[in-house]
């Protein structure tokens, strides 16, 4: 059963014939229509959140002091499932993976506006190498009198070639917040407990 219900073709990643460290992993679920034997239930790719990319602390100045913190965003959940996708080149079977993120958003003392834009990425990995990567920017508006809230991204679609053995999938999807070098360095120096949870069924 799918559990993401707002499909959109914007942001679909299509991988052709061919197509580091992690703190969280979720196995997405496959699904099939038993009334139609022509459909297949493909294995889903593994999904990882690379170390240090689940949090983003945004500061207004060079000094990373709490007074200069404009906001904090944390990935709290990753949801998704798999099904048969549109046929690829030469009628190649494809696996369509649907991925969505949930966030915890916290307003900082130095925040000056209610709109928060969250940059994040989905990278397709095979044999430890990045085959494709796409970045997204989703914006959310906080009420003026609210200091924290939760939010969900739009649904993103990723089409991957199906393996000959449909119970295997050679790909891994790495999903995380798109950080600057300074932001990633800050996270590595100030590790936090993971708030991540799986919404897979």
Automatic annotation (TrEMBL):
Domain of life: Bacteria
Protein name: Lipoprotein
